Amino acid sequence: MITSILLALFQAPVSGTPAVNPSIPVVIPITGGVEAPTQPTGKSSSTYSVLPRIPSTPNLKVETGLSVHIRDIMRVRGQELNTITGVGLVEGLAGTGDSGGLVRRLKANYLREMDINVLENEIQLGNIAVVTLSAVLPANVKAGSQIDVTAACMGDATSLTGGVLLFSYLRGPDGTLYGTAGGPLSTGAISASAEGVSATTSHPTVGMVIGGCKVEEEVKSEIVSEHGFIYLDAPPRNGSFATAVKVTNAVNGIYPGAAVAIDGLTVRVTVPEGVLQDQHVAFLASILEREIIAESFARIVINERTGVIVFGAGVRIGPGAVTKGNLTVTIAESPEASQPGPLSGGSTEVVPRTQLVVEEENRPISIIKGAANLNEVVEVLNVLGATARDMIQILQSMESAGMLYAQIQTK
């Protein structure tokens, strides 16, 4: 029927227009059709680059043989810091609290201690967070003193900003109650968010209550042992046999025969018979105020996560040759979707697109004549022109080759 109608339209003349010849094909324009989709043309990219080296300060000489107080490199045994810990609740959060069942149980228990009985499912979430608490007790701190307490999120809370720590207990390793804490938290963080974007400064999941912990129990310690000795201990990073000998000589310079070096970390001081008990503090202060020439440690501390390298003044480098060539491989994947034309009966296909770039540095071998002090060490390493990441590998290889006269510590 449709075919008959089309033939009739072709054959019937229209007033004012010539007749259509059936033998001549007629092209009827199609309007409102579906156009073929535009194929994607975007490409992914990946670039690895090294920024220009920041020039070092020229002609900066390192001074050695600095004098330091004994108190700065030795500690008095028995005067250690003590850490107390606990668990608490932070309230008043703006929807950034925990979402788990632990906060419900702890809040219900907290209210029961106040003779308020509630069901766990009646407690609303979002404005409460469970935190771990820690505070540091100085030696001989008296009961009633106020110290700082630090709170860290224990659950999935996203921010403690604006929260208030509820009354909590802090205990020592022996279970003794040493402190009680509470008060408004300060995080020093700013967090703002909108749909699809957020910005945060500092660390909002850790806060501090300044002076928020009240000391309930004194941690007693004695300066002088029951045998009449004072022990001066050096931290492992500062301890050495030379340091122990220097401290011993400094003490014996004012109290002859009073000090004996036990090992590289400890010096034992005998309290003279004429020094009374109420003079022990003044006696110890006169020792700690003495100065000695600090030892230059041959030590290199490397933090591979951050790329930080710290050299001690005693680092030395022996003669040798070094070269380092970086191999950089850059891979960029940018798959594209190929759309079929309309009414073609085809299917959408994903076409892989890969960009692979391999770059290898071609550096010459650098001759090192050796470095007898820290200034020369810095000059030698700067001549190599290596980045911090390369420097870490070079230093480790130098140590393996016996060129580096230093102890490497990796953080």
How is this structure best summarized?
With 411 residues, this protein is of the alpha+beta class.
Structural topology:
Layout: H1 2-11, E1 67-69, H2 70-73, E2 75-76, E3 82-91, H3 101-113, E4 128-137, E5 146-153, E6 164-171, E7 177-184, E8 190-194, E9 197-201, E10 206-215, E11 229-233, H4 241-252, E12 259-261, E13 266-270, H5 280-288, E14 291-293, E15 299-303, E16 308-311, E17 316-317, E18 320-322, E19 327-333, E20 336-338, E21 349-351, E22 354-360, E23 366-368, H6 374-384, H7 388-401, E24 404-405, E25 407-410
Parallel strand pairs: 15-25
Antiparallel strand pairs: 1-14, 2-11, 3-4, 3-6, 4-5, 5-10, 6-7, 7-10, 8-9, 11-13, 12-13, 15-16, 17-24, 18-23, 19-22, 20-21
Write up this protein.
The protein is α+β, with helices and mostly antiparallel strands and 411 residues long. It has seven helices and 25 strands. The chain has helices at 2-11, 70-73, 101-113, 241-252, 280-288, 374-384, 388-401, and strands at 67-69, 75-76, 82-91, 128-137, 146-153, 164-171, 177-184, 190-194, 197-201, 206-215, 229-233, 259-261, 266-270, 291-293, 299-303, 308-311, 316-317, 320-322, 327-333, 336-338, 349-351, 354-360, 366-368, 404-405, 407-410. The strands form nine sheets. The protein has a six-stranded antiparallel beta barrel. The longest helix is centred in the last third of the chain and has 14 residues, at 388-401. The protein starts with a helix and ends with a strand.
